Amino acid sequence: MRTPTSTLGALFVMTAVLAGTLSGSTAAAPPPAGQSAAADRIARGEYLVRIMSCHDCHTPHKPAPGGGIEPDMTRALSGHPQDMKMPPLPTLPEGPWIGVLGATMTSWGGPWGVSFTANLTPDKETGLGTWTEEMFIATIKSGRHQGKGRPILPPMTGVLNAVRSLTDDDLRAVFAYLQSITPVRNKVPEPIDPAEEER
Ligand code: HEC
Asked: pLDDT at residue 4 above 70?
């Protein structure tokens, strides 16, 4: 027996078909499952990178119209600009100030010396282009360069404490997004340790 609900259902389908015919649209084929899952993962990664403020430090900032600074998205996530040589760290006055910050927000000086934000774009020579997902996740979890090298310096250490709480799925999404953006060739300088800075 035909129930009122299924009649309504049938009507709905008919209306939908009719609407499709009238608007002249042919149903667009959905993207293959694999492709849409990959796109979803990249979109999730883009969202996480945006809300976790990765651009604050990894995208060089430039003067903003009307004052202040803003991220230069033509160099998104490319790290400290290679052509921007920083002068020696200034000596801070006595008191609770602990560090200094370069104008592009990509160089950070303090008791750890000077650290320069990394190029997170997929450039093969100067960015994360040759990194695997495993290397990225190991870096975040261990706090060491590529999961086994030197310890990562402040202020990234504090960021790692937060990012480490992401699920592996979310970390994979962040990595997938970083690998999908425009590669920027920019060789970030090595960090300067405090002893070197005092010479
Ligand atoms: C407060 C500033 C700051 C924020 C915010 C920040 N970073 Fe960093 N990041 C740095 C600095 C500085 C370094 C370089 C540290 C060093 O040389 O040891 C770095 C290094 C890294 C590295 C290490 C690369 C390598 O070669 O080992 C990765 C990966 C990274 N950041 C990813 C991210 C991601 C993803 C986000 C957003 C969730 C983020 N960072 C947010 C400052 C920041």
From this structure: no
Give the Å distance between the CA of 39 and the centre of ligand 1: 24
pTM: 0.85
Residue nearest to atom 15 of ligand 1 (CA): 153
By CB atoms closer than 10 A (0-12, 13-18, 19+), residue 74 is exposed
Which has more confidence, 88 or 17?
A: 88
Residue 119: name the closest of 146, 83, 80 by CA.
80
- Residue nearest (by alpha carbon) to ligand 1 atom 39: 54
Give the C-alpha separation, 32 to 137, whole Å.
28
HSE-CB of 1 using CA atoms within 13 angstroms = 2
What residues are in contact with ligand 1 under a 6 Å CB criterion? 49, 52-54, 56-58, 108, 115, 117-118, 120, 139, 145, 152-153, 155-156, 159, 163, 174, 191
Half-sphere exposure of 59 (CA within 13 A, CB side): 20
Taking the domains of the chain in order of start, what are their residue ranges?
Answer: 35-86+102-191
Atom in ligand 1 nearest the alpha carbon of residue 152: 18
Q: Read off the pLDDT of each residue in 2-19 and give the average, rounded to a whole number.
A: 44
Under the banding of pLDDT at 50, 70 and 90, the label for residue 33 is confident
- 14 vs 8, 21, 100, CA distance in Å? 10, 10, 67
